[in-house]
Amino acid sequence: MNAQFSKRFGIMKFSVLIVFLLLLSCDQKELKGEFTFTYYNQDEGMKLVEAFEEKHPGVKINLQIYQFSYFEHGKPETDVCVIEDAFIKRAVNRPDYLEHLLEDLSEPPYNAEELASKMIPYTVDLGRDDDGKIRALANIATPGAIGYRREIAKKYLGTDDPDAISEMLSSTENILETAKKLKDGE
Questions:
Q1: What is the domain count for the chain?
Q2: Which domain holds residue 89?
Q3: Residue 23's closest CA among 58, 56, 61?
Q4: How far apart are alpha carbons 81 and 76 in whole angstroms?
Q5: Which of 44, 73, 102 is the last residue of a domain?
């Protein structure tokens, strides 16, 4: 599957979850006001905006479109946003995001801790900051696998044990360390 397609599909799923949660949480009262929704695709973003505005005619949503690197290098001025899954963990710990964008969702009125018990732990942990507060909710838990030839792993990594190889690839830091080891030929 094309990596760009996978990335966009994951983001789309996350976006739909956000809008769905917004719609569910807003069922009890009539909403009025205006807010900015930041999204990565004009066509999909407009469909989400139209669906929300149809359900809540007293709300005006300003759609803002961004490039993927915006959340990596920019300081978004938005009320609701979709952050690419690759940037979520970095975003939840950025002081400039925490000041104005990513509220603590753990406590009322959001009560994300209650929702977290029904979610895959990885998706909750992805949105937790270093202090343990939930700052973002993700629905992305794409399973992955890495295949390797045992004789090559034994030769270049010193082991072909699946548990040892799993540990070498268990975090970004470990993957980079393993890659450096392979590159340097240690």
A1: 2
A2: 3-26+33-102
A3: 56
A4: 9
A5: 102
Q: What is the pLDDT of residues 76-131, one digit of tens each?
A: 678 888 877 777 888 888 877 766 678 888 888 889 999 888 888 888 888 899 99
Angle at 17 between CA 44 and CA 172, to 5 degrees: 100
| Cis peptide, bond prior to residue 109, ω within 30 of zero | yes
Question: What are the tokens at 157?
Answer: 């990594």
CA 77/CA 37 separation, integer angstroms: 10
What stretch of H or E contains 38?
strand 33-39
The predicted model scores a pTM of 0.56
Structure tokens at 168: 């070498």
Location of structure tokens 């973002």: 136
The residue whose two tokens read 């970095």 is 90
